[in-house]
Known about the structure:
Layout: H1 2-34, H2 38-51, E1 55-63, E2 66-70, E3 73-76, E4 81-86, E5 95-96, H3 105-112, E6 131-135, E7 142-147, E8 157-162
Parallel strand pairs: 1-4, 3-8
Antiparallel strand pairs: 1-2, 4-6, 5-7, 7-8
Amino acid sequence: MRVTSMVAGLAFLLAACGGEKKAEAPAAGGGADTTGGAAPAAAPAAAPAAGGGGNHDVMMTLNGSKYQFEPAELTIKAGDVVTFHNKSGGPHNVSFWGDSIPKGAEAVLKTAMPDQMGPLQGPLLTEQDGTYKIAFTGAPTGDYKFYCLPHLALGMHGKITVH
Ligand SMILES: [Cu+2]
């Protein structure tokens, strides 16, 4: 009696197991088929975001008679860090126009920009190869237009796009 019922029980368990697996397999297959297009697309998008903290370098230079940020325009992701380098023609600094940054960006930059000499104005970089880092952690997407205070009249300005 006992043996019979155990065998019956095992048979039932095996049947249940097999039944579950059979039921799962087509479901998973169907899922992969329907989301097949989206899954590979999501993976590459998630990878850079997970990596985060991308680094970008912007040179502050004097080329001939032209003061400039190089590159003058760059696109980054929220969380990336932009390092400005005083290469030639300094002192330079990095200042943002309060009316040319996305909504909510002022509060972010306020904490992201060390040693401000005024609202949204980075310190003057006087040392050769001196650097100034801004981490765009939690920065809203949009365009951030900036300039060099000493050389604004000479057209030294640029744009960072957070996307
Ligand atoms: Cu400058």
